């Protein structure tokens, strides 16, 4: 009887451990997939930008303190079909502002938040990365005059109005913002999105992107999640890459 | 009278159950290793892309001085003669890398660009590894990744 009880206890422990392992693996896969998708889309858009027509800003805090992340935006020559459009003189036809920013969804109450490195929040791992395509000023189309309708880069002051929070995962209300022609959530459950322009003076035109997501299910279910610093936590996947715009 | 299980039957069933649980644990352990490797592969791919582009950009901007000529005029062939080596820390993980750069030649052995001194094409390769110098570890397989890009001298004047 004693042997049987011992074996049952060992079996229970093994099963519990297995369930924990599989949940961690699943959370890790989710984190990697989100990061990969964010990398692919950010790189694709930034590569087509002009380094001098690009800017970054800190997204205002949604939680207690610390900006939600970085916003990066640039002028794009990609038309509605994704193809690059040229002006008659062969130069790129800058016709849209493309904006990426990380933000805590509205109504999210499980994170207290707190300031980490660079005065950005490093505690809430449930942020979403949003991509907006903005046609500011006179609406531009491939049929319009590419010189007269050329878009200008939105200023830091003007971009603030676009750094809005989705209602959960619902971004439909953002389509009502002036000039927004596309909006989507690129990745969710991200902890960190930070972009730096030319962080090393020896390397011109570099845009460094740092994306982090919590990969550990056990970490995600801790009661202190949302209030404990996670920037350098061992349960966080860190992905650093650089983009060198071609224009 | 109802017949119960014999001791032998109980022992066999317990042994089978134990075997099944151990197999499950082994599978989970393998999956965990594969997941860890997948995460490191993703990070290493970012390191490869980043360090290669940074090295090329620095060379094309002649930093440090003389590196631009060195890049275009010399060949740095894998594996004995790396152009640059270094390491990159991402979170808690350290990645080492070596970068190679060689002229691209056609089937006759002539440099692309008809041998012009200002129109070469270089193939730049980077190898990134972690944990150990030989690029593999027992139970994890390969612990290295690689990437390459072509650089056209005519586009960088």
Walk me through the topology.
The complex is a heterodimer of chains A (247) and B (157).
Chain A: H1 2-47, E1 54-58, E2 70-76, E3 96-103, E4 127-134, H2 156-159, E5 180-190, E6 192-197, E7 207-214, H3 217-220, E8 236-243
Antiparallel strand pairs in A: 1-2, 2-3, 3-4, 4-5, 6-7, 7-8
Chain B: H1 7-60, H2 67-73, E1 84-90, E2 93-103, E3 121-130, E4 136-137, E5 141-142, E6 144-152
Antiparallel strand pairs in B: 1-2, 2-3, 3-6, 4-5
Helix-strand category of chain B: alpha+beta
Question: What fraction, in percent, of the residue positions of chain B are helical?
Answer: 25-40%
Number of helices of chain A: 3
E-strand count of chain B: 6
Order of helices and strands of chain B: HHEEEEEE
Order of helix and strand elements from N to C terminus of chain A: HEEEEHEEEHE
Give the amount of beta strand of chain A, in percent.
15-25%
Account of the 3D structure:
The complex is a heterodimer of chains A (247) and B (157). Chain A has 247 residues and is α+β, with helices and mostly antiparallel strands. Chain A has 3 helices and 8 strands; from the N terminus they run H-E-E-E-E-H-E-E-E-H-E. Chain A has helices at residues 2-47, 156-159, 217-220, and strands spanning 54-58, 70-76, 96-103, 127-134, 180-190, 192-197, 207-214, 236-243. A 5-stranded antiparallel sheet of chain A has the order 1-2-3-4-5, with helices on one face. The radius of gyration of chain A is 22 Å and the shape is elongated. The N and C termini of chain A lie far apart (76 Å). In chain A, 37% of the residues are buried. The model of chain A has no long low-confidence stretch (mean pLDDT 87). Chain B is α+β, with helices and mostly antiparallel strands and 157 residues long. Chain B is 39% helix and 26% strand. Chain B has helices at 7-60, 67-73, and strands at residues 84-90, 93-103, 121-130, 136-137, 141-142, 144-152. Chain B has a 4-stranded antiparallel sheet, covered by helices on one side. A two-stranded antiparallel sheet of chain B has the order 4-5. The radius of gyration of chain B is 26 Å and the shape is elongated. The N and C termini of chain B lie far apart (97 Å). The A-B interface holds A 3-4, 7, 10-11, 14-15, 17-18, 21-22, 24-25, 28-29, 32, 35-36, 39, 200, 202-206, 208, 215, 232, 234, 236-242, 244 and B 10, 14, 17-18, 21-22, 24-25, 28-29, 31-32, 35, 38-39, 42-43, 46-47, 49-50, 53-54, 57-58, 61, 63, 90-92.
């Amino acid at each position: 009887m004693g042997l049987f009880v011992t074996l049952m206890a060992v079996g229970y422990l093994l099963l519990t451990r297995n369930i924990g392992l599989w949940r961690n693996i699943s959370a890790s896969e989710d984190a990697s997939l989100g990061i990969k998708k964010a990398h692919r889309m950010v790189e694709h858009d930034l590569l087509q930008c002009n380094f001098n027509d690009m800017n970054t800003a800190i997204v205002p805090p949604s939680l207690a303190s610390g900006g939600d992340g970085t916003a990066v935006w640039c002028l794009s020559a990609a038309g509605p079909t994704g193809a690059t459009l040229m002006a008659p003189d062969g130069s790129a036809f800058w016709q849209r502002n493309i904006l990426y920013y990380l933000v805590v969804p509205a109504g999210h109450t499980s994170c207290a938040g707190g300031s980490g490195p660079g005065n950005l929040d490093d505690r809430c791992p449930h942020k979403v990365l949003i991509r907006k395509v903005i046609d500011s000023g006179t609406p531009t189309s491939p049929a319009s005059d590419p010189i007269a309708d050329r878009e200008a880069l939105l200023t830091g002051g003007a971009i603030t109005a676009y750094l809005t929070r989705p209602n959960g995962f619902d971004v439909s209300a953002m389509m009502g913002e002036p000039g927004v022609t596309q909006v989507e959530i690129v990745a969710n459950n991200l902890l960190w999105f930070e972009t730096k322009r030319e962080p090393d003076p020896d390397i011109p035109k570099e845009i460094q992107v740092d994306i982090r997501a919590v990969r550990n299910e056990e970490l995600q279910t801790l009661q202190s999640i949302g209030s404990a610093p996670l920037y350098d936590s061992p349960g966080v996947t860190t992905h650093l890459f650089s983009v060198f715009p071609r224009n | 009278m109802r017949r119960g299980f014999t001791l032998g039957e109980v022992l066999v069933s317990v042994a089978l159950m134990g075997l099944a649980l151990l197999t499950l644990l082994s599978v989970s352990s393998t999956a965990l290793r594969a997941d860890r490797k997948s995460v490191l592969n993703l990070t290493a791919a970012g390191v490869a892309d980043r360090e290669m582009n940074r090295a090329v950009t620095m060379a094309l901007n002649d930093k440090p001085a003389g590196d631009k000529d060195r890049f275009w005029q010399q060949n740095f062939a894998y594996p004995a003669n790396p152009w640059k080596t270094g390491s990159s820390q991402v979170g808690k993980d350290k990645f080492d890398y070596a970068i190679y750069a060689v002229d691209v030649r056609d089937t006759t052995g002539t440099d692309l660009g008809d041998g012009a001194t200002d129109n070469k094409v270089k193939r730049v390769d980077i190898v990134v590894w972690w944990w150990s110098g030989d690029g593999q570890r027992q139970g994890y397989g390969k612990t290295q990744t690689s990437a390459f890009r072509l650089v056209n001298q005519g586009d960088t004047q």
